[in-house]
Each structure stands twice: as structure tokens, then as C-alpha cells.
Amino acid sequence: MTVVRRESAYQQSLDWMRGRIAEGDWTVGERIPTEPELMTLLGVGRNTVREAIKTLTSTGILEIRRGSGTFVRARTDIGGLLGRQVAVAEMLNVFEVRRALETEAVRLACGRRTDDDLRSLSALLEERQRTADEASRFADADLAFHLRVVEAAHNPVLSDLFAGILEPTRATYDFTVGIHPPSLTTDDHRAVVDAIAARDEDAAVRAALGYLDRVLEAVHQASRP
């Protein structure tokens, strides 16, 4: 048990929870321990735990989902606040931000990727292809692939910014699935992985723009009255 001293119990609990998220013990999208579990882990009362959760929720780091629990939304205040802002933005604006972040990410990934990154990307690419006919599972697999591409850049701020727009990005799938079937960009996704493996920045950016611009056009079409 991680016992928190009575003085500044709230601040110490808050710092401990921030640390679990920042260090990756609690990852983006993961449900954190329940209030009783946190009380036991920290050795503090329910009110202290609730205040810490309330603070992290107000900055967008945590998200409370009724009936499901409390989930990590971002690793830092930057990503959390961005996520809250884009949640109410038009999906076209959201996708333009995604395009800017992801093209820079693939460029950086070419110079920084590891063998583990490549193995993960290949596995996620296969999962994306396996679920192409199942809308919900495909959306999960596709977003996981793109998040992993960004993580291969090994820039935690970039990863956090991208994670901050995952939720509104996912909403675009419902609008574009009829206009933009997954099969249209399979080759471009494979080309991105191959280019990152070869450390070819130009090819990686071209391939990323291949699928990003096609989806962006689908978003344009879906947003028209």
C-alpha cells in the first residue's frame, strides 16, 4: 500500500495519480482503479480521492463515464485541454489538426522508430485488415494503428496532443464509412509502415498524405448539406 502522509493528503494523492499517468502505468483509454481501491492504495479517505479525481477531470486528464468508471483521457494537461476544446469543434477542423500532427509524426518516426515499434505497427495493420467489415472493431483498430504511428515518433507531447483528439476523430468514422470504405487506403497504410521501416521520410509523408487526404475529402463530402 502506498500510504500518503496526513499533511497535504490531497496534493500528495494528486501528485501520485499524475505520476501514474505520466509514467505510463495508467495509459490513455485505460480505466483507473475505483475509489475504494484508490483509498486503499493511498491510505486516504474518500473525499481526498474524489477531490484529486475532480481536479484531474477538470483539466481533461481523466474522464468519468457513468456506469463504466473513470478513464485516462490524456497524459498531461496539454492533451486534456486540447481534447476538451476539439470535442465541440467541427469534425473538419478536427481532421485538419490530425493531418498536421500525423504527417509530422511519420517523418519523426522514420528517424526514431525501434524494432518494437515496427512489430506493433505490423500487428495493428493486420488487425485493421481483419476487422474491415466490422465498423466498430475497425474504428478501434484503425485508431490504435494511427496512435501507434504517432508514438513511434517518441515525442510524448506530440503523442499527447494526438491522443487528445482521438475521441472526436472517432466520430468521423460514422460520417465517412459510406463514402470512404477502408479498402481504399490499405496500400497507403502498408506503405507508411514500409517507409518508416526503411527510414524514408519522403515516402512516409507521401503515403500518410495518401490516406489522410482521401479521408479529408470524405469528411468534406460528409459535412456538406
Commentary on this structure:
With 225 residues, the protein is mainly α. It folds into two domains: 9-73, Orthogonal Bundle (Arc Repressor Mutant, subunit A); 78-223, GntR ligand-binding domain-like (Four Helix Bundle (Hemerythrin (Met), subunit A)), CATH 1.20.120. Helices cover 69% and strands 4% of the residues. It contains eleven helices and two strands, in the order αααββαααααααα. It has a two-stranded antiparallel ribbon. Helix 5 runs parallel beside helix 10 (186-198). Mean pLDDT is 83; it is low at 3-7.
Brief write-up:
The chain has 225 residues and is mostly helical. The chain has eleven helices and two strands; from the N terminus they run H-H-H-E-E-H-H-H-H-H-H-H-H.
**Quick check: average pLDDT?**
83
Unreliable stretches (pLDDT < 50, length at least 5) are 3-7
Q: Work out the radius of gyration.
A: 19 Å
- Which range best describes the helical content: under 10%, 10-25%, 25-40%, 40-55%, 55-70% or over 70%? 55-70%
Under CATH at level 1, the class of the largest domain stands as Mainly Alpha
- What is the second-level CATH architecture of the largest domain? Up-down Bundle
Number of helices: 11
Q: Determine the structural class based on helices, strands and strand pairing.
A: mainly alpha
Strand element count = 2
CATH topology label of the largest domain: Four Helix Bundle (Hemerythrin (Met), subunit A)
CATH-assigned homologous superfamily of the largest domain: GntR ligand-binding domain-like
Give the tally of structural domains. 2
Strand order of the largest sheet: 1-2
Distance between the termini: 57 Å
Q: Outline the biggest β-sheet.
A: 2 strands, antiparallel
Q: In percent, how much strand structure appears in the residues?
A: under 5%
Order of helices and strands: HHHEEHHHHHHHH
Morphology: elongated
